[in-house]
Amino acid sequence: MKKIKIIRMLVLGIAIMGVLPAIHAESVEPTLTTAAAVRGLSADDAEKHLPVKLHGVVTFYDDGLFSRFVQDDTAGIYLQVTNSNPLVPGQIIDVDGVTGSGEFAPVVLVASIQVTGQGPLPEARPVSAEELLSGSQDSQFVEISGMVRSVNYEKPTGDYYLEIVADGERFTVVTREVPTNQLNDLLDAKVRVRGVCATLFNRQRQLFGVRLLVPNADGLTVVKNAPFNPFSAPAQSIDSLLRFTPEGVTSHRVKVTGTVTYFEPGRAIFIQDGSQGLQCQTTLRDEVKPGDQVEIVGWPTKGEYSPVLEDAIYRKTGVNSEPKPDVVDLNEILTGVHDSKLVQLSAKVLQRVDRGVNQFLLLSAGDFVFQAYLPADASIGRFSDLPSGSQVNVTGICLIERGNNWQAGKDWRAKSFRLLLRSPQDVQVVSLAPTSTPPDNWVLIVGAMELIILIVVIRLALYAKWKSLDSK
Q1: For domain 326-431, which CATH number applies: 3.40.50.10240, 3.40.50.300, 2.40.50.140, 2.102.10.10?
Q2: Angle 218-173-180 (CA atoms, 0-180°, nearest 5)?
Q3: Which residue from 124, 61, 120, 45 is spatially nearest to 95, judged by alpha carbons?
Q4: pTM score
Q5: Which of 67, 111, 149, 459 measures 20 to 30 Å from 188, CA to CA?
Q6: Superfamily of domain 49-226 in the CATH hierarchy
Q7: What whole-number distance in Å separates Cα of residue 209 and Cα of residue 367?
Q8: Strands 308-319 and 277-281
Q9: Tell me: the pLDDT tens digits for 139-176?
Q10: Residue 459 confidence class, pLDDT cut points 50, 70, 90
């Protein structure tokens, strides 16, 4: 019996010894050896810091942009690196590290990097704007073509920033080299971009934009030069923009002329040519004033209700008298025909509101409430001496708020509108609010106070007489 127990214990021990290595083998996480395997992890799994060994080529590396990417035969991936020597695109490297969840997609937390050679960049995969904005191309070496809208050189970093439009979507391109010495030659040119797709995201891991990081001079190529000197083109009337033509809407810049009605340096310039107003978005700061005649070149695009010129450039051609506003009533302004034009209407002040440097007036025309605002520094004046209830004539740039109930025909009216004021002088007082009047029961209140005072005086007199009698 004792021998049987000993035999059983030996058998059990052998069995346990055979199982333990298997259990230990299952507890060790396998090493991930491709970028695609890392990208395929969920955020929770990537945060388990699984071991990674990659062999690939550097596609972009710039510590100043917090951008470090490598791509192997399967995919591209972001490297989260600390205390590492800078790398150069085209270097072949071995990467040891662990996975991390990243802030948008899984990343590699680098423990060590070994440079093993030099090679060509991977072949860029042609993609659409829709694919880029889906987030699926994050960290990948891609190719896309588009029209250049703006070019800026950042001297502190040595980087060029291009804004391009592809398939109606806007992207930022960052590069150290451009294929021309004259940056303006790139405007309105069609370019091919080969670079790494870097996603812009919020704190909730949600995409809100994309930029393309170009690693070398070959990554930015002009496919088609800009068609002409933009200011040499014939001018179009403002009301011709985005109208139907059998050829369709142009993808190139157009030139318009008009009289300046409003200018905010580096942001916007409004003009009108008699029939219609136009908002032009610009980063230029060359000063112009209301009344100046200008030529403006930009890309027409749809606005809230009327066309807008994007990425506009302009030049002053003359001086005229300051334009007079169209005097309108509420019904006329809601038809929308005065959008982006200088208008004037009668209104009543309901409330004054300051929000930082911006000043707002809540106004009413009859029972309709609307807003006028002054996006300017408080030093040019304020509305503090304008009491609520005052009747005013207010002048400003009309900005139509279309709403969701648009329909064809003359009966349609906009949901609302705002007035963009140029200065506090755009609000002219017709009549101040009546001053406060005493309430109807003011006489009763005064009479009651007099009675109280009389009672106090009588009681003091009686008390004094009582004290005198008591002392006798």
Answers
A1: 2.40.50.140
A2: 50
A3: 61
A4: 0.76
A5: 67
A6: Nucleic acid-binding proteins (2.40.50.140)
A7: 42
A8: parallel
A9: 999 999 999 999 999 999 999 999 999 998 999 999 99
A10: low
